[in-house]
Design a protein that fits this description.
The protein is of the alpha+beta class. It contains four helices and eight strands. Strands 1, 2, 3, 4, 5, 6, 7 and 8 form an eight-stranded antiparallel sheet that branches. The two termini are 30 Å apart.
């Protein structure tokens, strides 16, 4: 990372950013052409492995791209706030972000799909409820996960009050 003063080195802080944010931008490559989509997500962080979970319709451009090339990048950002200044060139923005690289894996078994969907619901609602999903719903749904292999965090803090 070029700006070491903005780097977040503590993995716990990076995972807290992943926990705080609710929308993930998933970046894919479609024949060397970038394709980015915002998605709601859920996640687990177990044995030092971050796994993101997503769902969608079983057909569409995103699914075609992921099947052809499972390599992906994600970005989440939150805690944004404008930093004003007298000089317009000195305006800035406070933020926290996490970026990761990894591989997409489609989830096929109904049990694993239900677990992934429960992680999404837990993250989005803040409730640790185990939902039951009708088998016909699980069959009509694409569920996929990103196994994150590299993860970085970055932030710019608000200036201390004067």
């Amino acid at each position: 990372m070029r700006r070491k003063d903005k780097e977040i080195a503590d993995m716990g802080e990076i995972i807290e950013i992943v926990r705080e944010c609710k929308v993930c931008r998933l970046a894919l490559s479609d024949n060397d052409r970038p394709y980015v989509i915002p998605l709601n997500y859920g996640f687990t962080f177990e044995n030092n492995q971050l796994t993101l979970f997503f769902h969608s319709a079983p057909e569409g451009k995103k699914n075609e791209i992921m099947k052809a090339n499972p390599l992906a990048c994600f970005e989440v950002d939150c805690a944004g706030s404008l930093i004003e200044a007298d000089d317009p060139c000195k305006y800035s923005y406070a933020f926290k972000s996490a970026i990761g690289f990894g591989k997409i894996v489609f989830v096929e078994s109904p049990g694993e799909k239900a677990r992934a969907l429960n992680e999404i619901m837990k993250h989005q609602t803040g409730k640790d409820t185990l939902y039951n999903y009708p088998p016909e719903s699980l069959e009509k749904l694409a569920v996929y996960k990103m196994l994150v292999e590299e993860l970085t965090g970055k932030q710019k803090r608000l200036p201390a009050p004067s």
